Amino acid sequence: MFEEEGLDGDEHGDTLCGACVDNYASDEFWICCDMCEKWFHGICVKITPARAEHIKHYKCPACSNKRARP
């Protein structure tokens, strides 16, 4: 669900932030949406590494705003 700094960035080299569309960098905190599986800079979605530790299933802002279909 979330990526700690210092991990190997080669695996995510083509990953873009779903909010700002900037490239992955291993020295930044990232979090993945469990619904759409897009990756986001923590700062772009206002999630800190400490807060992410308490989130079981992260939904990005777009997925959080989607309403369930009747």
Automatic annotation (TrEMBL):
Residues 14-66 form the PHD-type domain. This is PHD finger protein ALFIN-LIKE. The PHD-type zinc finger mediates the binding to H3K4me3. Keywords: Chromatin regulator, Metal-binding, Nucleus, Transcription, Transcription regulation, Zinc, Zinc-finger. Gene3D superfamilies: Zinc/RING finger domain, C3HC4 (zinc finger). GO terms for molecular function: histone binding; zinc ion binding. SUPFAM superfamilies: FYVE/PHD zinc finger. GO terms for biological process: chromatin organization; regulation of DNA-templated transcription. The keyword Heme does not apply. One of its GO terms (cellular component) is nucleus. Pfam families: PHD. Histone-binding component that specifically recognizes H3 tails trimethylated on 'Lys-4' (H3K4me3), which mark transcription start sites of virtually all active genes. Belongs to the Alfin family. Interacts with H3K4me3 and to a lesser extent with H3K4me2. It is found in: Nucleus.
